[in-house]
TrEMBL record, chain A:
V-ATPase is a heteromultimeric enzyme made up of two complexes: the ATP-hydrolytic V1 complex and the proton translocation V0 complex. The V1 complex consists of three catalytic AB heterodimers that form a heterohexamer, three peripheral stalks each consisting of EG heterodimers, one central rotor including subunits D and F, and the regulatory subunits C and H. The proton translocation complex V0 consists of the proton transport subunit a, a ring of proteolipid subunits c9c'', rotary subunit d, subunits e and f, and the accessory subunits ATP6AP1/Ac45 and ATP6AP2/PRR. It comes from Macrostomum lignano. It comes from the Eukaryota. This is V-type proton ATPase subunit. Keywords: Hydrogen ion transport, Ion transport, Transport.
From TrEMBL, chain B:
It comes from Macrostomum lignano. GO terms for cellular component: plasma membrane; proton-transporting V-type ATPase, V0 domain; vacuolar proton-transporting V-type ATPase complex. This is V-type proton ATPase subunit a. The keyword Coiled coil applies. It is found in: Membrane. Essential component of the vacuolar proton pump (V-ATPase), a multimeric enzyme that catalyzes the translocation of protons across the membranes. Required for assembly and activity of the V-ATPase. It is a multi-pass membrane protein. It comes from the Eukaryota.
Amino acid sequence: MFSESMFSVDAGYLEGLARGFKGGILKKTDYYNLTQCETLEDLKLHLQSTDYGHFLANEAGPLTVSVIEERLKEKLIIEFNHLRTQATGYLAEFMDYITYSYMIDNVVLLLSGILHDRPIKEMLAKCHPMGTFEQMEAIHIATTTRELYDAVLVDTPLAPYFADCINEEDLNEMNIEIIRNTLYKAYLEDFSAFCQQIGGTTAEVMQEVLAFEADRRAFMITINSFGTELLKEDRKKLYPACGRLYPGGLEMLAQAEEVEQVKLVADYFAEYRVMFEDDGTGMDKTLEDKFFEHEVRLNVRAFMQQFHYGVFYSLVKLKEQEIRNIIWIAECVSQRHRAKIEAYIPILE
Amino acid sequence: MGDLFRSQEMTLCQLFLQAEAAFACVSELGELGLVQFRDLKPDTNAFQRKFVNEIRRCDEMERKLRYLEKEIKKDSVPVLDTGDNPEAPNPREMVDLEANLEKLENELRDVNANEESLKRNYLELTELKHILRKTQTFFEETVDQHRGGALGRALGAGGSQRQRHQSDERASLIGAGGSAEEAWPQAGGLQLHLKLISSCLCTLIDLTAIDQNPPKAQGRVTDEESWSNALYRADVALTASGGGVGGGDSAAAEEAASGGGRGFRFEFLAGVLLRERLPAFERMLWRVCRGNVFLKQADIDVPLEDPASGDEVLKAVFIVFFQGDQLKSRVKKICEGFRASLYPCPDSQAERREMAISVMTRIEDLNTVLNTTVDHRRRLLMSAAKNLRLWFIKVGKIKAIYHTLNMFNVEATSKCLIGEAWCAVDDLDKIHLALRSSATVPGRPSRRGTERAGSSVPPILNRMTTREAPPTYFRVNKLTVGFQNIIDAYGVASYREANPTPFAVITFPFLFAVMYGDFGHGALMFLAALPRRSGPPSSTARYIILLMGLFSVYTGLIYNDVFSHSVNIFGSGWSVKGQFSNMSIDQASVVLGVIHMVFGVCVGLTNHLYRRDFLSVIGEFVPQLLFMMAMFGYLVILIVYKWIAYSGQNSNCAPNLL
């Protein structure tokens, strides 16, 4: 209890800022207006009246979806860095943890680019700006995971997660995915342990959020591995252990061979059962969509409590979802394929 | 000031404008600044309005203007500000303005692109120049170290023959490249190179002789150890490949030095890298190449200009020595990864000198071209800077006019625009005049010219009755605007309510002065706020501060306070000598405060009377006054009585008031 009363000393201003940013997240009326747009110029005009302001004002030449996406991400980065540079102590470390997941994505993206012989500059342009690290550009010297570790990753914060991945095999398609999931598993478990160490409301809120993330990954890994040559034992090694499915659910998932069996596992947990069922509204939502919706719900709930670091994590996730929404709508508008334009995930009322 | 006591009488008007005349009419009304338009279509989105394309064009023009402004600021070209306020150009001229701006922007972008590529070339040549210079230093350094005779010791076998060798080598090294070629006829620059390498390595081995640790296993190794390990391995390679240079006679040494027979060649890559990336670069080199390369670096003292951003960055020159093709490709990849620029550096001293000379000439040529480009750009910007401010104003006005027109309703036959606006009743004549002149005067020499002659129907302005509450509009001038702002900060008065501002003009500075009360500081305030003839238009607060200063001077004299010192200017006004506890100032402020409050309640009374709200008079005003007088009025009476009844002598026995 006392820790919460001292929370505002170091992090009060930043929490205020974060809630301010959250207040600027697009509402239902904004999305309604966006879906009415005929061209990307209209989209830009409407976004001018939101918190995004004139972020596209200085773009010369015709607007494309990729330009919009770049600028949206840039705005998120600027806001995140503004918060990060003023953070101290546990909060600084917490915010660094948030960036590690993007680093993992970037590493895997670059590796797969090397595999397909893409020029390094093109791959670098596609990397997520929140996950950059110094040695990123030199990643193409690596041909085995051991080299990757020794040369590039050993100085990055991802080094401890790599311990399970090192072997002498050459990098190929399958391996890269396994690397991604192994890294992510180690990262999630580490992050969860760190939040438990912080304790208090942060631990409570983050526990819920990270548990869902872990379970969701377990489900997706299982379902995506049907029909591939991934063995069950290998699959089991990729499940993060910090979710609600641990340990019993993960055991059952490891044995599953088809979607029905996965559904059986999900039936044990009320929220997950709902997601696997047909929700009868007739709308064609995929499982991923339902996962996204649940994630948004959890993240919005995080803002209901005060004096914890979870708001920063949730802010980043919600902004990301918003960017995905806007880009979805922008794509529909620019391709004039308005059938599924309503398939974005609403965030706030 | 009587005008300021209540807000102006407002009326809602309906405006019928012909489509062709609409722009000019709204422009004229805008210049007048006397109407406030209502949005007749509040539910439509921004991009569904009628004039959205024109607004987009204005946005595009503003973007170009901002780009021009940014470039002008970058070059610190002064922007001309004549204080002119041009009117909005008509739509035909807008097209001309657009074309003009487009042309300017394109020209500027071209010049910038040219300049950037020239600067890039210049940067490359400069970096090459630095490399050539620094590599010379590298090689000279090793000559000095070599003089220490380390070569002999490190290589084990001693002997006078070796000594002779040393002196030969020394001589050859000192004597630039030429004599080396004489001494070893088969050799080329590479020979020299090998000597350098081996001498460098050996010297360093000698220097780190204490550190004879065998190479550690993979894992965390400190940088300190890394160098000795690197060299150890290199030395092992050196000696392993045929006794190295540690043979006994010149022939063997020569053979080893030629290296041809044993595939024993050292190569190097020279380049330039940002200083801040050097440590990570070194680390990665060591890790990836397992310590089999040798890096030498030197800082470039002068900061170089990055062509893309224009920032000055600090860079450093580095040379990497390695052996074999595999290492070469690895080193190249790492250099690429760290965005180091690699340059071909010739082996021999003579070639390097030649290259340095040609680089210098090319740099000079490039400099002249660069200067011409920069001049051209500056001339472009200066001509743009003359009109920049005017353009901004014009485009801003056009945009505002179209925003306003978006608030109109379009008549079904789309020949007529209908709008609604609030305006003050007193201003109706001026507005009528403006509308007529903008629409029908044919021969005006300004932009309105021939367009207007075509319109047959003059714009119509009708008064409308409505039940809505009109907006509150005060006619303020320079003096009252500041005070009105302060009063508005507490809450904007509703329509035709009594306005505290006319009273605040005096009471606010007065109350300030009662608290401030210093002649000196007050005089300073007054002087600071005086209107200056040559200064730019002042802020709205000027007259507030002026009055506050003036009143403070007055109270300062009363308080006998100058710059926080007491002065006796007027002598004592008191006829009684001797101390007595005097709380008059506090008591006086209480009296003043109560008078103010009663005054405020009475002003409220005028509001009730204006609205003929007699219930409020009985229900609000009377109880307020009663309550106030009963408590504070009594207090005031006591204070005044105490002042009068008790003189200086018997004030000690006066009863306390509270």
